[in-house]
Design goal:
The protein is built from 20 helices and five strands. The chain has 529 residues and is mostly helical. The chain has four domains: 53 residues, no CATH class; 160 residues, P-loop containing nucleotide triphosphate hydrolases (Rossmann fold); 128 residues, no CATH class; 58 residues. Helix 6 crosses helix 7, helix 15 crosses helix 16 and helix 16 packs antiparallel against helix 17.
Length: 529
C-alpha cells in the first residue's frame, strides 16, 4: 500500500495537482480501493473455480437446479453418507491387502520350511541309499575277489543257491570274465538273457543283496548264530517274491535254529509269512504287534493281518488242452524267440496234470525248467529225466525250425550293424516296413537301389552282419518230415534211456501244432504217414 501512495504522489506531481486538495480526492479514493478490488477479484476467481468443480461433479444431474434447498440438503447428506461408505471400503481394502501380504509372507515362510524339511529328508534318504550301495559294492567286490582266489568259494555257491530260491528259480547269479578280473551277471531263466546287475529291477536287486548278505553271514559266523533282523527288507517284493523269500528264511530258521526277526509296518505281511510257512510245513511265526503291546488304538486287526488269498490253479478235469491253456494264460509258442522263453505247457500237453504241476512248482518257462534240472533235479523226483529229454528236444526243434526261417529284421538290428548312417536312416526304415521286416526281401530291394545314394560298401557290410547274425538264411525251410528227421538226429535219446520214435514224433507234432498259423505259414505242420 505504501508503494501505491508513493506512486500516487508522483502521479499527482506529474498532473500538477495538489496532493491534499479536493481535486485530488477522487484519485486518492480510487487508489485506496485497489486492495478491495484485488480481494474481490480473488473471491470471484475462487467462486468461478467452485462453479466449475460443481458443474463437473454434478454432470449428468441436471435436476439439481430444480431442487429446493431442503431437497439439496437431503441429497447432500445422502452423498456424504455414500462417501463415508466408500472411504470405509477403501480403508478395509487397505487392511485386507496388508493382511494378505502378511499371510503370504507367512505362507512363503512355511513353504520354505516345508521345502527345507523335504530336502533334508531327501538328503537323509540319499545318504542311506549311498550307504546301502557302498555296502552292496563292498560285498560284491569281496565276493568277486574270493572267486578269483578260489574256483568256487562257499559264499558264492551259497549266494547262488539263495538267489535262485528267492526268485523262484527265475534268476541265477553268474561270474563272467571282465577286464578287471571278473564281473557278476544274472541270467533270466525266462528269456535266457544275461543281465548286468543294474538292469535288474529294484525288487530283484534286493533279493540278490539279501542272498549275498546271508551267504557272507553264514560263512563268517562261528559257534552260536546271532539273530537276524530284517527291517522292511521286503517292501519292494511282490506277493510271489515275498512268499519265496519267507519260505526260504523259514526253512533256514528251522534247519539252523537261527532266530529271524522281520519288522514291518504292513499288517498284510503277517498273513503272507504265515501262509508261506504253512505251505511248506514249517513252524508258524510268533507275531508281536508293538502297537497292541503298548495299548495303542492303531493296533492292527485280525482282518488286516490276514493275507489276501491266492487262487489255486484250476483243476484240468473237463478241459481240452486249448481250453486249459487259455485259462492258464499260456504264452504262444514262437520258435523265433529264445527257446528258454517257451512255456512249459507246450512240453507237457496233452498231459494237463503235468502242466499244472510244473506251474505249481513255478517252472513256467523252459529256461527255468532247465536251470532247475541242473541245480535241483530232486524237485521233479522221478519225472526229471522226462523233462530233461523234453527240453533237449525243444532246443533241437527250435534249431531245425529256424533253418530258412530267420526272425523278422528289426530297427535294432540295423542300428547294431553300424552300416546305416543318420542321413540314410529314414529311407532305410521306410523300406524295412515296406518289406514287412523280411530280411531277404529287404536286402534284395536295397540292392536294387530302392534307397537312393545308399553305398554299395555299406550294403556289403550290412549283408555280412545279417548273415553272421543268422538273419539271412538262403537254405530252404524244412517241412514237417524234414523237421522230424533233423530233431531225431540231434536228440541223443535222453539221460537214461533212448526214447521211442513215437515219443519224438508226438512231441514234434505238438510243437508244430502250437505254432500260430501267422508264424507257421509254410510248410504244413502235418506229418506224412
Amino acid at each position: 500500500m505504501a508503494d501505491l501512495r508513493t506512486e500516487l504522489s508522483a502521479l499527482l506531481g506529474r498532473l500538477d495537482l495538489p496532493r491534499d486538495t479536493a481535486e485530488s480526492a477522487p484519485v486518492r479514493d480510487l487508489v485506496d480501493a485497489i486492495p478491495q478490488r484485488d480481494h474481490a477479484d480473488d473471491v470471484l476467481q475462487t467462486a468461478r473455480r467452485k462453479v466449475t468443480l460443481c458443474a463437473a461433479a454434478t454432470a449428468g444431474h441436471d435436476n439439481l437446479d430444480a431442487m429446493s434447498d431442503d431437497e439439496l440438503a437431503t441429497t447432500l447428506e445422502s452423498a456424504r453418507k455414500r462417501a463415508a461408505t466408500v472411504l470405509g471400503l477403501v480403508e478395509e481394502r487397505v487392511t485386507l491387502r496388508h493382511d494378505v501380504e502378511t499371510t503370504r509372507a507367512g505362507h512363503l515362510k512355511a513353504s520354505a520350511l516345508a521345502d527345507e524339511t523335504a530336502r533334508r529328508d531327501d538328503l537323509i534318504s540319499w545318504r542311506d541309499d549311498a550307504r546301502e550301495q557302498a555296502l552292496e559294492a563292498a560285498l560284491l567286490t569281496e565276493l568277486r575277489d574270493s572267486h578269483e582266489a578260489l574256483e568256487t568259494p562257499v559264499q558264492l555257491e551259497r549266494a547262488r543257491e539263495l538267489f535262485a530260491t528267492f526268485t523262484d528259480r527265475r534268476y541265477h547269479l553268474l561270474v563272467v570274465p571282465a577286464t578287471d578280473g571278473a564281473a557278476f551277471r544274472a541270467r533270466d531263466g525266462y528269456s535266457g538273457d544275461i543281465l548286468d546287475l543294474d538292469q535288474l529291477s529294484d525288487g530283484t536287486r534286493a533279493q540278490l543283496m539279501l542272498a549275498v548278505r546271508l551267504a557272507f553271514l553264514e560263512h563268517a559266523e562261528t559257534g552260536v548264530r546271532p539273530p537276524l533282523f530284517l527291517d522292511e527288507s521286503l517292501t519292494t517284493a511282490d506277493r510271489t517274491r515275498l512268499d519265496a523269500i519267507a519260505g526260504a528264511l523259514g526253512r533256514l530258521a528251522a534247519e539252523t535254529g537261527r532266530q529271524i526277526f522281520y519288522l514291518t509296518s504292513q499288517p498284510g505281511d503277517v498273513g503272507a509269512w504265515q501262509t508261506a510257512l504253512a505251505a511248506r510245513d514249517l513252524p508258524a511265526p510268533t507275531v508281536l504287534d508293538l502297537a497292541a503291546a503298548r495299548g495303542m488304538t492303531t493296533a492292527a486287526t485280525a482282518v488286516e493281518m490276514t493275507a489276501e488269498p491266492v487262487a489255486p490253479l484250476p483243476d484240468p478235469a473237463g478241459f481240452d488242452p486249448a481250453g486249459y491253456g487259455a485259462v492258464l494264460g499260456v504264452r504262444r509258442f514262437d520258435p523265433r524267440d529264445p527257446w528258454q522263453t517257451t512255456d512249459t505247457f507246450h512240453l507237457a500237453a496233452p498231459d494237463l496234470a503235468a502242466a499244472r504241476l510244473l506251474r505249481t512248482l513255478g517252472l513256467v518257462t523252459a529256461g527255468v525248467l532247465e536251470q532247475t534240472l541242473r541245480r535241483d533235479p530232486a524237485l521233479l523226483a522221478d519225472d526229471a529225466p522226462r523233462w530233461a529229454w523234453s527240453v533237449q528236444l525243444l532246443r533241437a526243434f527250435v534249431t531245425a525250425w529256424r533253418i530258412g526261417r530267420p526272425r523278422p529284421l528289426t530297427v535294432a538290428d540295423l542300428d547294431s550293424s553300424e552300416a546305416v548312417s543318420d542321413a540314410m536312416r529314414d529311407g532305410v526304415l521306410e523300406l524295412l516296413v515296406a518289406c514287412d521286416h523280411h530280411s531277404r526281401r529287404f536286402m534284395t530291394a536295397l540292392r536294387k537301389g530302392q534307397v537312393k545314394r545308399f553305398r554299395t560298401d555299406k550294403m556289403d557290410t550290412l549283408e555280412t552282419y545279417l548273415e553272421d547274425s543268422g538273419l539271412l538264411d538262403n537254405r530252404p525251410p524244412l517241412d514237417a518230415d524234414g523237421l522230424l528227421v533233423a530233431v531225431q538226429r540231434q536228440v541223443t535219446g535222453g539221460h537214461e534211456k533212448a526214447r521211442a520214435p513215437e515219443e519224438v514224433r508226438a512231441l514234434v507234432l505238438l510243437l508244430l501244432q502250437a505254432i500260430p498259423p501267422t508264424i507257421a505259414n509254410d510248410p504244413s505242420s502235418a506229418l506224412s504217414t
